[in-house]
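Annex B. Sample input.
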Amino acid sequence: MSAKKPPAITEETASPDRKRRVVRQAIEQGVVAFAGMQFRCAVLDDETRVISGTEFMRVMGIYRSGALSTRRSETDEFYVPLHLAFKNLRPFIMEDAELVEALKHPISYREVGGNIAEGIRADVLRRICSVWVRAQRANVLGPSQEKIAEKAAILLDALADVAIIALIDEATGYQKRRAHDELQKILAAYISAELLPWQSRFPKSYYEQIHKVMGWDYDASSTARTAYIGKLTNKLIYEKLPPGVLDELKRKNPTDPSTKRRRRKPFQFLTNDVGHPHLQNQITAVTTLMRATPRGNRRLFEQLFNEAFPPAQGDLFTQLELEKLERPEHIS
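Annex B, continued. Sample output.
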């Protein structure tokens, strides 16, 4: 009497571990080109970047078969995806501990159209290609497998893990969403939800040093040139906070149409735990550079500032503004 053939593994008969696999959701999808080969890709709801496993097999020339499927055994201590389910690849899989660990956590995701797909993590793709390349070098591959290994070698040489992630972000459009999300995190850290009470954040020494660099006499009681110093302060201080912070400060504190001035000081909208410490550090650093600058040598200060805080912003002191300030009516 012949031995009874074991039943095929289905969703209902799969091991508890395989049943518990979370099906993630693709939030962005696209087609990415690596070394002239095109793959469907996605960014998942946990920000994992993946290549479609089915698409990878198609492009690489790995075809499904009954023999291939039987090598996905429940007795394996980790999940062997179809693109690695060859007995002659197993020793090369086991050589890579990080790959083995990744295979213990297979990824299933729901595509935007609703289909369930198997994903290859972007940072695992090169490790999979490496398995094929190392097997080829060991001369253990069959003729059809050799062709797969040749493509794997091309991919391996062409890509770095970071580049794969960046290319997927570009292909799916996720880079725009990521940039927006990162900006929101920065703004939440720097911009206070409530207006803080007024408290001077700029010491008199800061304004005194600006006057010295410009070659002006300093009068602590005078408000002359306040508008110009305000513009200069934006360039020296507020523009050196993370990108987007100054724009948000301006949005929350618009110019009054009647006075042409902002009703509040920008620093009143910064958070105490992150925004104000960064502001104070920048003020201190800039004041130190101005102290090191001889009186009236604004070009030397501009050079020192651009070297300390690259990239250079162009002229801090525009000729037109300086000519206006040097007219008699502007001299205090």
